[in-house]
């Protein structure tokens, strides 16, 4: 099987253990993650090959970040190690009950932000690919990142690959001279599949569910597809967060004029909420690849994968396809497997 | 008070901390356990002396396993250290919420499997005993283990000891030339008390609850006693597993034509589910010894002991009789004790 | 802003990690706490300056205890380091579900118990103060501690400071020659604000809610104020402990003839229950200082602060005023903050 | 083989890992030790049975201390669990290079100090014994401890057991009403073997090496034997401490008019210096039992055992006789054993 | 006693435990340090009060950094918390034997680099001071940092304080528009005491030891004093690094035309080499304050303090004056202190 | 550059931290290693691509082992995951000073031992290779492993690759029906480069240095080359182990009639001795590739690489070529790199 290729920034994540606060922690657990690379790594666990393209500082931290994804089988040969910039970091305080988890970002001036678009030869990178996936975080980081993202999408379209995006609008990330509302539309226009919430659609594209629409997600998705006719599938998770320790999620899909919604999964306790969305999209890529004619099945797989992710430490959804199918089949009581 | 003697294999347990998966863990917590030795150790905590007979490799791992049980007061003087075989291991991934805990066994070719039945002088081992307890795992391991188990039961009967068994049928353990269905009946025939679920009874003895029986456990127990007239008590826990983090258990007992069932305990979060059954039987041995005329009381003690075990790290139920009685008395809200 | 000054003993707290029992723990987490110093430290986190007066052994343990509070911004310049006595310790087993947390105290013969009342120059200590807070634990420790506490209250009254107390009657602490029932009333008589439960009021002052009173807390508070007319505010938390892992609390206040009660907060899981009461009183001092004319708001702040404390490791409530206000504003679902 | 019986206090040892200071440590490693019980535990590792008699608080700390020695095979059945007193503690800072290791004792008012001499039935305790060993720390703790020690020695003499003592004078331990110089002589008079340095001999017995004596240890030993004619063997280690990380030790023995001295062992790095003396005496008891006619061999064994102890974490010398013999045979280069 | 005031950047230090490399570490130990603040903290441990002025991001990392120094008694009231910039970090790999320790700096764009000189009111900050200390790292960071440093020195001179500097030239730090060779001389001109090696003197001031000078340090110091006549004392450590685990240091001083040099200390193993220079200067400030007329004694104290620092984990020299004097008195064999 | 391909078993390594013994360790550090795969991984760190062929159980342990080498860049695509057998383990106690490190192997019945030679298509595996490396451990494991090893060598010769072997005779590994003395010679006959000590040569090939030979290594190498004329280079390390914490090594090479020997490196302390030989051969492969005409330089590189390995935790030599060259250039004092 050919590869799914992802493109984006990978950061070091530093997190106090045992629900400690940053001001009291004598040690920090280290892992690495990025919204797009997490998708690649999860796909490999599910059994579908994936590669990631990114840019890292040519120092031990950059190498450690890349090696983390190598470990889980992601093809990192297209990554660039640069003398410019640093490794982006984020510090994660893990909340509990009514205390929220909290992230302190420290990602400014990263090597990825300073990447040289010419360093990525997309014809070569995508030569063995079947799919390109990116997130809205990538073009938010810098003009050069946005430019490289656009070049990747253009090459992918040229080659007839499937293109997906998690549009994922984060207002405070967009700090260079261009506006998300200008940068994102031409990029999204090249996508076949998007993860997009109603909030994202309004913020980025000015799309509001039609007044009185019976289902606001459907109304949004219809307008999105009307605006960007390449899009064939719009998906999202709907979270009903009960507490920092108890999440309830369901999966939503609009495709071919049809609306699909799963029953919810309750996750309590939540072990690690980071990467929940990334595991949803990787689950959907897997599901729609394996069951191309059965959207409900693909969505069920994606949602179960995301539910499982909340029980896995770290950014990456370290679960096999069999483990996800076990959940899809209704085995949600966590009975000991010997 | 004389000893309860148990016989069986003790394994090293290696477990990633903090709900990590085995593929990501840089360190593994070490403890030791075995379905029968756990009963012995729990009994000592409750205040009743116990000894364990087993077989270990004569290397640091074998000694560490034995010393773990010595630490908690089990008389290990009858254990054999052998040049044959290795220490059995099991790797435990601790699940959470809808992700199940999962065990990878690595116990083949253990010293216990290779034990020499002649190395166990049951007349001497049982000289200071009042009770013999074994589990269905022991005869499953090897022909020589089954033979030693039979010899132990025969000697116990000869001396008029009480004999109990947790029949605990595990299909994939039985890998030597004999069938569980042939090996187990003569061993169970020597027991006064058995832990047996309806599934065990069907798999091992072909006993199915009578069609239309109002209570399938009672129906099973009646047939079991009819088949093995030495048996006076049949007990079991009934689990309604809500998730890997939330267990609900109640205790069942059939004795003297009467059926007893406790109200359930909810345990959330579950700290360590391993040994939950062993703590039930040790609780019942304690309870029925202290309250021989009050089966409901014995069952209540056993069930509370098992509930508490789910909050204790490791295989062994490290709780005192007073702590169990505190639960039996209805103090289940976990109020801080100063 | 002037300081809140607290007076009392600080102990080393030694606690097995991961819900282990003391008999199985190969390492103990170390922190430090005291019912009054915890109030000072929490106030500094909330943005109100505070100082603590105490007595420590002149050894590394005493210095470590004082430094722990220095770290969180408490002014420790009035602390005394003495050659008499030792640092009090307490060992905390963290329970789970129906297994209670359990404290083994080891605080006898501490330097605080042996303090010399003359070593505390209250005129100087309170020179920059606006408020004095103490707890009923302090006079319980020794006659000299009770004497110093009385001297502090007297000087505070002389200077017109606000005085508050958490009366916190612990029967087994009172082991020197005097009775709590004799020692406490004159001290409480000097207070403007007390934390007092109905149990405390009965045990210490023989106050029982009037038969048939519609609200027993109000009845108690009315009698308390009648007895000690300096008192203007009586507060308490009402706990409905569900399990060692699930707490439900609400705040109660009687002031100016009015009764206030908050809606409850559920905390599940509880990360650390110790200091829950101390965080309530520090929250109330903060709240009533910032909103002197709005008792309900002060109480809401205090209760949210206490709820948050249950999610914070250690004795001290390491949360900012903004974080408490976030809860007061209804954000209790623990949604990730980026 | 019959048991060696030891008598004395066991303390909890709390130690910052990684050479941290107590003022900076967020966690403390826990182990347990006592100068006499360490001898018992080491003997069991060497293959000679041993029992220990002591007194512990009847709380989880006391049980944990006793279980630690049970784990390593010491027969603890003669230990007393008392409602009086606490578990003695000591805090150990592990130095490095020119920074010394440092102990903060917190052992006042222990259960052992408050022991009731009548609680120890020495006839029963020594019934299965061949040897009694005690240290000078025991009579230093309290009058009742000294009294029990005297009773043990008297009963041992009555039964013809060998009695040994590590006289180990620690000036600041003797804080009750009696003087070491009065208490120790009658106890030492009952010994066959003593560990005694020249400093101890001078401090306790006023014995000074004869002026101009060619070997001051021999001169001291001769006088000691002259004073206490029951003594047949005087041993000691001679330490040439190079740094907290580099120790050099040799063993000294005076017996039957002959002087023996081993060549020195260099230990660098030192992993754990505590218990170095206890491992010397346990090694000598083992060695003199196995090689009664070859004092030099016994001494060589003792010295090698002590050298090895410096590489073992914790108070107890967890090495086998074969491992000690490996060193005695000259294998000191630490070559990897596969 | 009045305060020693230091000014400079504090960074978070992240370090793999157990000599691991950054690419393999699953967790990083956290501490905080800065070349000037380390001096302040060490002085407080020695018994001399100190304050630090710095600039931190107004986020949990910035607060944690400041709290770390508060913990060890440094007066941090003059620190500024800013919305600009981030907390500087450094990643430390701890080497061993012939593998060097290695630092990856990640300090660009820190809040300290972006400080506003007007935010520091030196008249107020130095109001309670007797001494100002700074390092050559501070003016290297940014033009505004250099400007604030100059303002501090000017105010200190105006008030007649002693001013000291560790000139500490680090070529790759100077990355803004100005040259060290232009910025440093006017700052050094305001100093009474400097730490300066011959390399620093040549790089910064073009001072080379006179050809044929019998002692190159003396020759350099004479020229330095000739150039900057305010300087009365020039000090340095001379390192003969044997390996990453074995350091040999001696102290050098030129004062009043006299040259002083200590005998060397060997430190093996080195526990933590970071802050070795800072501990030397803090030791010298202490020593010259206590023994103003005895330069050799001050230098001996400084050198012993620095030697001890190499055995202390973290940036800060957590040793008391008594502990340093113990070394000065020749107790360098690390003999256990009970 | 084409790949170096290695073939052999990878085991899980479980090791108590902090020099603990296995009988006392509550947790074990986990890593993975194998004598041949370690060579592949080290080469990737040095900058030369490498692949490994092996056989693992199709369970989480097998995947974790493979992922560990993926992490460090080894191409693992040719590895086989099998339903037969288990993951081999080894338990490593890390010694100190005169206490040796000690390995308890638990590798019987591994998936590698049970490999199917037909599962390895050497034409495909070696298609992108320039070099094949194997160790004498591989043919020792089982007949099928030996057969696969022979097939690999044959295919490598057919393709004109360089073939190297670390003959590494371990007597107690050879437990199947064939003798090392029969199996090894035809395999070694296919090699261009061998690591071989004089002991190996005698045990495997009956080669003894000529009586009176001035250099026994040269004499052995000459005979080895005479026997196996394909061999062009014979290398070895000469260890002068001082203690478990202090190693001294030098490198030896015989090539083209010339003998080369490096000066020794002292390593103290040794952080991790395992893989010292593997790092020597990987260093030599690197060195002889980069400096084909300068054998002394290749040997110097290999020896420095091996010296550095002793300071690196885990089996794999995680050092760059630049770091090795830094040592070769004489920078062995471990001076801090900023």
From TrEMBL, chains A, B, C, D, E, F:
Keywords: Kinase, Transferase. Residues 1-317 form the Carbohydrate kinase PfkB domain. InterPro entries: Carb_kinase_PfkB-like, PfkB_dom, Ribokinase-like. It holds the Pfam family PfkB. One of its GO terms (molecular function) is kinase activity. Belongs to the carbohydrate kinase PfkB family. This is Sugar kinase. It comes from Hymenobacter nivis.
């Amino acid at each position: 099987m050919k590869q799914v290729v992802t493109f984006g920034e990978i950061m070091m994540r530093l997190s106090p253990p045992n629900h400690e606060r940053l001001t009291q922690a004598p040690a920090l657990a280290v892992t690495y993650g990025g919204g797009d690379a997490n998708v690649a790594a999860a796909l490999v666990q599910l059994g579908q090959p994936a590669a990631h393209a990114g840019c890292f500082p040519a120092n031990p931290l950059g190498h450690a970040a890349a090696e983390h994804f190598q470990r889980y089988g992601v093809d990192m040969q297209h990554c660039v190690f640069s003398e410019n910039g640093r490794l982006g970091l984020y510090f994660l305080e893990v909340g509990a009950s009514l205390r929220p988890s909290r992230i302190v970002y420290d990602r400014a001036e990263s090597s990825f932000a300073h990447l040289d678009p010419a360093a990525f030869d997309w014809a070569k990178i995508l030569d063995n690919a079947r799919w390109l996936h990116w997130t809205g975080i990538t073009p938010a980081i810098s003009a050069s990142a946005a430019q490289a993202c656009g070049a990747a999408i253009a090459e992918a379209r040229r080659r007839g690959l499937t293109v997906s995006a998690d549009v994922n609008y984060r207002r405070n990330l967009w700090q260079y001279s261009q506006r998300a509302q200008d940068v994102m539309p031409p990029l999204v226009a090249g996508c076949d599949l998007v993860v997009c919430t109603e909030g994202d659609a309004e913020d980025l594209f000015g799309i509001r569910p039609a007044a009185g629409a019976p289902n606001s997600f459907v109304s949004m998705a219809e307008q999105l597809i009307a605006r960007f006719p390449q899009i064939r599938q719009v998906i999202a998770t709907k979270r009903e967060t009960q507490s920092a320790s108890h999440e309830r999620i369901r999966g939503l899909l609009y495709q071919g004029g049809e609306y699909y919604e799963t029953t919810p999964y309750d996750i309590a306790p939540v072990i690690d909420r980071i990467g929940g969305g990334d595991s949803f999209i990787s689950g959907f890529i897997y599901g729609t690849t394996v069951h191309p004619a059965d959207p409900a099945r693909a969505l069920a797989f994606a949602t179960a994968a995301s539910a499982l992710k909340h029980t896995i430490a770290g950014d990456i959804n370290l679960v096999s396809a069999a483990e996800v199918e076990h959940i899809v089949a209704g085995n949600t009581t966590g009975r000991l497997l010997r």
